[in-house]
Protein: D-xylose 1-dehydrogenase (NADP(+), D-xylono-1,5-lactone-forming)
Amino acid sequence: MASLFGALQRNWRMINPPTPLPPKAENALRIGILGAANIAPVALINPAKLHPEVIVQAVAARDKTKAAAYAKKHGIPQVLGSYQEILDDPSIDAVYIPLPNGLHFEWALKALAKGKHVLLEKPAFSNAAEAEKLLQSPKPQQQPAPVLLEAFHYRFHPAWAHFLSFVDQPNIAHVTASLNLSSMLFAKDDIRFRYDLSGGALMDLTYTMSVLRGVYGTEPEECTSCEVGTMDPPNELCDYKYDGTWRFPNGGTGEMHGTLRGGLVQMLRSLPSVTVTHRAVAVEPHEYAKSSSAVVPTAGQETVRTRTVTLNNYIMPTLWHRIDVVDDFIVRDKTTLEPIHRWSAKQTAKAYTRRDAGLPEDDAAAAAAAAAASPPSWSTYKHQLDAFVDRIRGRPGTGAWVTAEDTLNQMRMIDMAYSKAGLALRPTSSFNPTLAV
Structure:
């Protein structure tokens, strides 16, 4: 009952932050939003209310009337007539770009050239060629250089760090990542299914590839298979589901599954999850002595452990998540490898705060904790915003980050999957980066 009450309280406060909200600092960063996107309230506007150093100052959309209604609804003080007006406004320090994928490259480059820090929705670009152009583009003279962050928000939550603490990267054998969404969420004419805007399930659900890379801590060598389901004409170049496999440098494999057109029951019954299976490794008695079923090996014997770790609901862990760790032990003969005794040990873990995960709290997190009534209610997006601000301010933060090189490797992985599936890479923007300078 206490667990249920805690979950209800945590989720209520995530949606309804406690009052009074923390006062804004005099030097608070002022952020402009490019596009009146549905994701912005969850990803930025609401988390910004809890951050004393962030003010969502302005919004612009293709339709100024829509932008005005959006600003009124979300308490944004300024409506500008175009995306460019936001970039030209000297009072705006940073921009959030939740535009369709095909527009990310142009507006991220323009914003960086204007010296604006950029929080960029994933996937950052349409393909690896665009990411390479970003790394090669002329850098603004502003020092320090403006910050660019691709919004893989799940990486910033303590649950992800705690999950990785149970993973033995050199001995990973296999990883499976899944993300299934219901067709009820997106109409067939949704921009996610427009090739000219760089749509497709491998793009929109790129989390599964990010998870594989994050767990292995390295880049895949090959996409060994990728099968997709495609939309009906005229959107037949866009995939709505995929199943793929990968080979990683340590000989391990990766498996990914995702759909934007699944059933409602499928979505509710299969929360986004990642499961890591390890190779059998020799362990010492002190590593399992607490297990009541444990048997200590005698001369000529050894104990090996095979570990399986699952993180349930890696995308929105604040709502609910659980880390399941299953260790299968075998005492066996060292020469013949014949098993003598078997047993299993199971544990579960959760981490809604950095303290839960046994992680140090940096100064920004401690300050925010004093301002918020319930730190466990911080969403992945709140943790991400903290990291974004810390990086801009030159503070060490928590260490979680997505580098430009990381973004490039992520786009390379997406390209590999499309190539293996026999689909065209998403189209490269015609925008010339030199025009942004």
Observations:
- The CA atoms of residues 56 and 75 lie 9 Å apart.
- Residues 404-421 form the longest helix (18 residues).
